[in-house]
Amino acid sequence: MIVDILLVLGGLALLVFGGDLLVKGAVNLALRLGITPLVVGLTVVAFGTSAPELLVSLSAALNGSSGIALGNVVGSNIANVVVILGFTSLVSVIVTKGHDLRESWAMMMGASVLLIALAATGQIGMFGGIILLLALVAVLWRQLSTGRVDDDEIEGAEPGAKGRKIALWLGGGLVALPLGANLLVSGATQIAQEFGISDTVIGLTLVAIGTSLPELAASVASAVRGRADMALGNVVGSNIFNILAILGITSIVTPLSIPPEMLRLDLWVMLGTSLLMAPFLFKGIVISRPVGAVFLALYGAYVWVLL
Prior knowledge:
- Helix content is 80%, strand content 1%.
- By secondary structure, the protein is mainly alpha-helical.
- It has one domain (2-306): NCX, central ion-binding region (A middle domain of Talin 1), CATH 1.20.1420.30.
- Strands 1-2 form a two-stranded antiparallel ribbon.
- Helix 5 packs parallel to helix 9 (230-253).
């Protein structure tokens, strides 16, 4: 058991470290090649920050653990709303007024409904993966045609970074990420077997929370700097990308069998937590500390039901 816990912790550390290196390297390489900040922000950063989740889901699916692969995405989307926004609002209230994320929220809801529809067939294979990726292309096109990103808002951007430094960042990230994913999936699978619980539950809880740690850290750091509102965009963007990109790519590489219990509960919990954001985004209601405490309590109740 101790070895398995060390594998999980080591895997998480490598995923966080490797993800950060990959984002830095990819962002600065893209900017040096003359790609506009808008494109870098919406594509390179989005793919880079989701690389840990992608590698974990791919590794799990290829090892026959569809429960971990799918649970990682569904559990992350649930945690992104109630855990990340919950913790962030405890540090600093989240002002939603003046941040028009209604269209992006609608895209997130659309992606969630699309996932449930595909999951209802019992398996998401290549055809389903293509549908998800086509939806991702549509979302990116819409954001590229209407959005704006400033240079100082791009995660990992370091003007003047040398080529050798960029190469080291990219190399380090490309080595650390797959190694970390393999360690995490291996340790998590063993823990599930030793406790006699399904790999789906492990994916929905331990793996999902672990791969969401970078987003949680970034959101809390933003709150400390007085920009707690940035957590809103992070959550919505991450949830869209988790479904359309991660599950799209993973299901094309290898079909994902849908655990029956996920269709009965977890996918609907994901949809419900996404709906929780609606009154705050559409009515401009502040996400206060008491609201954050309720969010965290809801997550605690969900995990209790799972276990």
